[in-house]
Amino acid sequence: MSEKGKSMALHNKILLSLVLGGVAGIGAQAVAAGNPAFKEQLDSILKNVIEPVGNIFLAMIFMIVVPLLLSALILGIAQIGDVARVGRIGLRTLAMTVLLSGIAVAIAFALVNLAKPGSTISPEQRDQLYAAYAKDGEKKLGIRAENTETAFTEAEAKELDGKIADAIDKAKPPQDGDPILGIVPRNPVLEASRALSGGILPFMFFALVLGLGLAKSDPEVVAPVRAFFEGIFEISQKVIEMAMALAPIGVFALVFKTGAALGIDIFRVLGVYAIVVLVGLGLHMFITYPVVLKLIAKRNPREFFGQIRNVMLTAFATSSSNATLPVALKAAEEEVGLPKDVSSFVLTVGATANQNGTALFEGITIIFFCQLFDVPLTAADQLMVLGVSIVAGIGTAGVPGGAWPVIGGIIKTLGVPAGAIGMALGIDRILDMSRTVLNVTGDITIAACVSEWEGRSTAIPESVQG
Ligand code: ASP
After folding, report:
1. What is the domain extent for residue 413?
2. 374 CB neighbour count, 10 Å cutoff
3. Model confidence over 413-459: pLDDT tens digits?
4. How distant is the alpha carbon of residue 348 from its chain centre?
5. Residue 20 covered by a domain
6. Using one digit for the tens of pLDDT, what is the confidence trace for 298-325?
7. Which atom belonging to ligand 1 lies closest to the Cα atom of 403?
8. Atom 1, ligand 1: which residue's CA is nearest?
């Protein structure tokens, strides 16, 4: 009971820091706009205090993701026990991912075609924005910023194509010792070291194989190994508790920085686009998830959202599904009451593979850029973009801004200069924070559905039943 009381207090503290950080950040930016001396001070405070504090908080969580993931998955799989059951849970997770991402992308398409945010910006505004921000976009993709003109000659376009392909390649894990088919690792230590830069699936495959090996071994012989991983899991949970105790300060710093850097001017031009994204995310969050929770997971959506409040706040503050994973694992077991074997498997896979919010965002953003740059899309093109957005959501790394290399690659193939993404980066952080909330909520929703299908969903804890 005292646990409960403590975690409630933490929710409120984090929420307060979020609000205070946002207000203070936006306020500081407003003051700095008319006061160069203050602006200099603000930049220095951001660089020397705010950024390190926010990054230390993130690092405290990131540093424990790999040991936590390894121990949680090994123990979860060992408990599930047989390959057939792991396969069944995997297929059910995949089916739910495709269903939820499909609905998300359908919402995206309906909204973006209805509101046409790309047509609300005049060609002059577009060209100005492009000239000002294409370099940022190219930098984000890791290509040299040279061309800031909208009019590309064929040769320039070809050259840029090559650079983008290189950039997207670079965004992937290094080629050396690459996993087979992108998932079966040759070198698990290498995979562990790059697990947080988009290469988490091969490492999870390794954990899965170890878990199955543990399940099949003579229990007496492997008892110390099981106890060892139980210990690692326990310690990881404690480290997360310690990190979360810093959350109010860390979250303040992260959100202050976002507020201070928010492109308020750009918001005036890209406001309709941003609103379309937020409305789409809202519809998916407050209609799709509750319906799925009620019909498939047989849960009360309002209570469910209450139980995962901490997870949503962490996702919002960190903009990273991977950083939120430890908090999600803990909440799924302790607050939502999902069986550990199922939730540890579904959540770890989902942190990378299930990103409904990102799929929705990618769908809207790709079509928005096509509207903005007058690239006509036939019905077949739109369908293609729809399918690509679903797959792109699955392939996007669960890190801040993970969506952009994917969007850059896709718009380029459609004939929009990839540097255009720079135009939206100024307001992206707030959209990123929002879509990450959906990504993690979707993961726990799927875990609840799969648990229900597996017939092992623990009833909602009595303490929370109304
Ligand atoms: N930040 C998102 C996540 O971690 C990915 C993205 O949409 O950029 O889930």
Report:
1. 9-464
2. 12
3. 888 988 889 888 878 888 999 999 999 999 999 999 999 998 865 55
4. 12
5. yes
6. 999 999 999 999 899 999 988 988 889 8
7. 8
8. 400
- Tell whether 2 is covered by a domain: no
Residues in contact with ligand 1 (CB, 6 Å cut-off): 319-321, 355, 358, 396, 398-403, 432, 435-436, 439
Q: What are the backbone dihedrals phi and psi of residue 180, each rounded to the nearest 5 degrees, phi first?
A: -75, 135
CA of 142 to the centre of ligand 1 (A): 18
Substitution candidate for ligand 1 out of 196, 318, 321, 421 with most atoms within 8 A of CB: 321
**Minimum-distance ligand 1 atom for the alpha carbon of 402:** 8
Q: Which long-range contacts (CB under 8 A, 24 or more apart) does 221-224 make?
A: none
How many whole angstroms from 459 Cα to the centroid of ligand 1?
31
**Which ligand 1 atom sits closest to the C-alpha of 320?**
4
Cα 368 to ligand 1 centroid, rounded to whole Å = 19
Token pair belonging to 290: 């509750």
Q: CA torsion 444→405→268→42, rounded to 10°?
A: 90
Report d(CA 287, CA 277) in Å as an integer: 15
pTM of the model: 0.80
Ligand 1 atom with minimal separation from the 323 CA = 4
Instruction: Classify residue 3: in a domain, yes or no.
Output: no
Residue 290 placed within a domain: yes
Task: Say which CATH number the domain at 413 has.
Answer: 1.10.3860.10
Number of domains in the chain: 1
Which atom of ligand 1 lies closest to the CA of 324?
A: 4
Mean pLDDT for back-to-back runs of 10 residues, the chain (466 residues): 53 87 90 88 93 90 86 86 85 93 95 92 86 80 48 54 58 62 84 75 87 91 95 89 88 89 75 95 98 96 95 91 89 92 86 88 94 89 86 78 86 88 86 95 96 73 42
- Please name which of 268, 286, 360, 357 lies closest in space to residue 316, comparing C-alpha atoms: 357
Task: Answer for the pair 427, 263: CB distance below 8 angstroms, yes or no.
Answer: yes
Q: Count the Cβ atoms, other than its own, within 10 Å of residue 184.
A: 12
Best of 432, 433, 441, 444 to mutate for ligand 1, by most ligand atoms within 8 A of CB?
432
Closest CA to 396 of 200, 137, 116: 200
